[in-house]
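Title: Prediction job returns without error message
Component: structure pipeline
Severity: low
Priority: P3
Assignee: unassigned

Description:
Job completed but the reporter wants confirmation the result is attached to the right record. Sequence as submitted:
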Amino acid sequence: MSITNQQVNEYVFLRALYADAYYPDRVLDKGRAVLLGLCERIEAERPSDLAALYHLTAVATEAFNELEAEFEAAGSEIETVAREEIAEDFGFVASAYGFGDADVEELIAGREW
């Protein structure tokens, strides 16, 4: 499925992390894929309220939890800078799909990073 939201198509996910050699591009690519997959699910399922959106973001957050081991194996980690960048991108996704009132902490409530 291709993403139809123009804001999302123009947005560069994990921009600050890609600019920092500490974060391996091959792992960031997987994180970017998680965020794009979240966008695809939002477009396909069209959540009607915040509870439904939070359900979708919980799945994406779990996928980031699983990426932590790959960051560590590459000599990196999801630390403060990465946490903030990932959280910001989850917030962007919520806003881009009309959920500007979403609580970013709730969007990533299941995070282990």
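Comment from assignee: result matches the submitted record. Residues 14-107 form one domain.
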